[in-house]
Amino acid sequence: MLDISLLQIEHWVSAFLFPFFRIASFLMAMPMIGTQLVPARIRMGLAMGITAVLVPVLPAPPVADGLTLHTYVLIAQQILIGAALGFALHIMFEIFAVGGQLIANQMGLGFASMTDPVNGVSVVVLGQFYLMLTMLLFLAMNGHLVMLNVITQSFDIIPVTMINFAAIKFMDIALAGTWMFSGALLMALPAVTSLLVINLSFGIMTKAAPQLNIFAIGFPFTMVMGLLITWISLSGFLGQFELIADHALGVIAQLIEVSDG
């Protein structure tokens, strides 16, 4: 018979429970894995598997002293850290969705929307195309492995034993929203500028020849030119994705950087 005390059982449960909350909340908030396409049971099983692999190499967490206030605070901190890291990665993917929305509105395809199976909302076709392309590039460049490395390193930067909500920079998460819109604008700027020149040209033609039916000519021409510009811009999509991904990883690293104060 094994002689296992209650203190040992509490230590084993604590060693698994606290990292599990951080990893599970991270997987629930990150793109692809934390979407409606992946059932909750699979995400929960994946979180348990990753936690079981990481627990032996993580610093020893504190022993949970029952359901005390200290235990609840530790659990809340783990959930906030994991959700913040996953949400910061989610913002990177939304840059391309917003950029596709801007281009589609300029070329006259703003009405052509479809239901996004990932988020369950209506997204323009061009934004959905950019979003799918971003996910494929992210997986092809082993981005999911990089994020698993990030969540692993977070236990060394912010150990479970440390209760410090100031270590999570919530203001940087809020400012990441401005970065999302600026990044989307920079991505869509060449196509939007080209389509704006085309629309201005049709405006001048309408002023010079009022009898010209601009709606019968301008709308199809703008749509065709928009698709052509989008096709040409795909050659530089990989470079844009690498720049945005590098910046996103820097933002994620700053979120869990412990301040000197």
Automatic annotation (TrEMBL):
Q: What does this protein do?
A: Role in flagellar biosynthesis.
Main location (coarse class): membrane
Naming one, the record's GO cellular component terms include: bacterial-type flagellum basal body
Please tell me the species this chain comes from.
Answer: Neptunomonas qingdaonensis
Question: Known InterPro entries for this protein?
Answer: FliR (IPR006303), T3SS_IM_R (IPR002010)
Q: Which NCBIfam families does this chain map to? A: fliR (TIGR01400)
Q: What is the annotated signal peptide range for this record? A: none
Q: Which family does it belong to?
A: Belongs to the FliR/MopE/SpaR family.
* Name by which UniProt lists this protein: Flagellar biosynthetic protein FliR
